[in-house]
Amino acid sequence: CEKEPSSYMWIYILLGNMLRGIGETPITPLGISYLDDFAKEENVPVYVACLHTTAMLGPMFGFLLGSLCAKLYVDIGFVDLGSITITSQDSRWVGAWWLGFLIGGATSFLSAIPFCFLPKSLKKPEEANKDKTSRGLLENTGASKNKLSPEKTKPRKWSVMLKDFYTSLKKVLGNRMYFTFLCCSLLQFSGFIGFLTYKPKYMEQQYGQSTSKSNFLIGITSLPPVGLGIFLGGLIMKKYKMGIIGATKFSFTLSFLSYAISFLHFFVGCDNYVVAGMTVSYE
């Protein structure tokens, strides 16, 4: 093109994703904290596993929705589809990528409405275990010292809240066990996200699949096993009542097996395309 594109529509997508992230983020940390405080200690792993498994179902349906939208022409509703002479198998085809944002946004908005009817505070069940491991760890580090009751809590200034946040963050990152676990999680998610991001494009280029079919296959084959693994891990931890050391050994063993099996990806591939002047000579 002689002229560079001057559209700034990507800013709307950026802001939309930012707002979506702000809205989604509190569910996981606050949900896990609630489960840890209000559920029996032996049931927490199962509940947390259910929470993460449900979170895995969202991307799976997202890939399936993306597969459906990729089959529809980008200007659907604005042009006569009978005049389109190319199909989704053509490299010039552009799917209705914007349709997924509208469907996902409307669904997110509707799913957020029930949260407005939750009470401000919830009573703790009497049968819940009061001697929580996490609470004991916090008491050992002095984080729960001078704790105020909800009735005596007063609104605090932003400067005080930021100062307390910095103090708490320093204590948490100073915990060697937690910091090691955090680094391990970053490495695991980085590898998984890279794998999930580039695998559809790899399937398109190497195996000659359409964008629609690549997204469909990724949604069906990659994410459900992860959700199933998280759920089974929670059940196993509940059944054998694993402590911190037992859970660490369990995680290390399965992670090592996962990395060993992942090496098989190096043996997956196809021969290079025959391109004159690049992969073969002109003769």
From TrEMBL:
A GO BP entry: monoatomic ion transport
Q: Does the keyword Transit peptide apply?
A: no
Spell out the Gene3D superfamilies in the cross-references.
MFS general substrate transporter like domains (1.20.1250.20)
| UniProt GO MF annotations | bile acid transmembrane transporter activity; sodium-independent organic anion transmembrane transporter activity
Q: Which domain of life is it from?
A: Eukaryota
Annotated membrane topology is: Multi-pass membrane protein
Show the segment(s) annotated as Disordered. 128-152
Name of the featured protein = Solute carrier organic anion transporter family member
